[in-house]
User: Fold these one by one.
Assistant:
Number 1:
Amino acid sequence: LSARLLDGRDLARRLAPALRTRVAALPRPPGLAVVLVGEDPASAVYVERKHERAERLGFHQATIRLPVDTPQGALEALIDELNVDPRIDGVLVQLPLPSQIDAGAVLGRILPEKDVDGFHVVNTGRLSQGLAALVPCTPLGVMRLIADAGLPLAGCDALVVGRSNIVGRPMAMLLEQAHATVTLAHSRTRNLEDHVRRADLVVAAVGRPDHIRGAWIKPGAVVIDVGINRLADGSLVGDVEFGPAAARAGAITPVPGGVGPMTIAMLMENTVTAAERRQGLAR
Ligand code: GUN
């Protein structure tokens, strides 16, 4: 291993004191509601982590668990309640949702000012125009990791692999706004290897173990691995073949302990930002 490790756990910890200061300056604690429909084991773990972190930061917090067969109308009625609840500043519906649910309709029902995931079309549109928005947590966390490491983005060739609304698309927008030259690759991209070989920065958000081979990484490149894939033996791996990639890269995120902790940290920040805006404080 020659690459510098980008430690998201450590950065998330270092960001906590400033966040606590912001929380203490609020007239009332920030309120976060997390909604989980069904019992997907990975989602249950993520929701539990969000709950714990919010509690430890002194948030008012509600985790609402609904059965897997919850109808669309019941979920929308819950969103409506949370929208008008004055103690709640942020509403997050854990994805994926069961197949009977129209996820777009649910996300579109959350008030944009409470949309701490940044998935509402208003926040997506605002981000796309470079306006103040609630920004999706994972790409925001990636930007923080890169900034904290002092890695320059202006003019660099950045490759984002994966075009989801949760990660790839907003990631590409943020990198472009930081003046990178961005390529957004996806499942129909021809010769992914050629794109990776040219890239100064690779952000992998595909959800397939070892999808990006270490030998493709340009020497000295920055590698950000958003993937969290559980193998048959129970271990967690990213989308990038870690060992060989770390031997070539200048900097790389581990899985776990890279991007994951930053996603949760940015959710907490977005919730405080939403609370500040809703309680009439600047930001
Ligand atoms: N599922 C995977 N990532 C996310 C996320 O950032 N937010 C929500 N709500 N669900 C997810």
Number 2:
Amino acid sequence: MRTIQVNLSRNNYKIQIGSGLLSQVGNTLIAMGFRGKAVIITNPTVRALYGEILLSEIRKAGFETVILEVPDGEEYKSLEWAGRLYNQLHDFQTERMTPVLALGGGVIGDLAGFVAATFMRGLPLLQLPTTLLAQVDSSIGGKVAVNHGKLKNTVGTFYQPQIVIADNSVLKTLPGEEIANGMAEIIKYGIIRDQGLFEIIEKNLDNLSAQNESLLEELIARCAAIKAEVVEKDETDLGPRNILNLGHTIGHAIETASDFQIEHGKGVAVGIIAAGKISRNMGILSQPDLERMGKVISEAGLPVRINGLKIADILQAMQHDKKKAGGKVRFVLPKKIGDVFISDEVTVLQVERVLEELI
Ligand code: NAD
Ligand code: GLY
């Protein structure tokens, strides 16, 4: 098992990465000082694969436990489903120290995290991410949220988990498409901070499968370490943490404009290409680095362009970006592979020009 520490001003926690960790969660809860009740929030897909194993392990450790299910899909990351979960937590007579275990991908992590943050003004949260994307990104750093209408992640808060337990053996059941979605965030980390990581991805493009446990463990650990370091510097995303949003300004807008039919990883992939092209058009990113980015993204099974959306809808969705400051949309742009800069000066015209090539 690898352990990465996240040290924040108000709380510290561990990210554990390793094979078989889910079967130890009962003991982990005891070691963390929990007793009595525990709540698992998951979806039917993940429940069928890992819910019952987790439930029996936690019961064996002496906990009275319930599994709360949310249907599978981004559209259920909503206030309506948060409300349903509040009712079920009330029915279970949840107490303020009852831990909430978020078992699933980023959708479950964000929704269960939001519910844990708000029910009874905060229940202890354990993130048990089961997708590659959630293990490298969404389970770490405390961003929890629901979508509101067409607005992505608009209602939320920062609420750190007490531990992140990333059991990489569960990735074996992940469809190839979801491995690709996780790769979008891993490629992002390489571009923003870690040229060496980017080179590992380039060298292993033929081995990027859910069965390659040791490669995935290495990638997860490197990304988690970068995320921990960035979040430690800027927990509430007012400055340095913005770099984690490479590809997300246009990526989120693509997700929104597609009514969430295009998944987060795919939106981010096209968003990274768009950011690369904007930087290239400014004369900053080199053509060879832009081409390397495009090659890695497409060979990881991700799109480098998207058909069927209207540019006007994407521009409209971008106006709701949470990084907007003083009326200007903030962009993270690659300088070179391994380094980025932040710009508030990208014009609508510059964005339109690249979207015309990509949409
Ligand atoms: P997801 O949660 O929808 O999971 C993808 C699919 O994989 C689902 O169908 C799920 O049921 C299935 N699945 C999960 N684990 C599985 C397993 N081990 N085996 C087989 N199938 C499995 O999608 P995601 O890509 O994990 O997360 C996307 C969400 O994360 C978006 O809502 C995005 O906004 C959010 N996000 C949040 C942050 C953050 O910092 N909070 C960062 C990035 C993304
Ligand atoms: N996924 C972006 C962040 O956590 O800040």
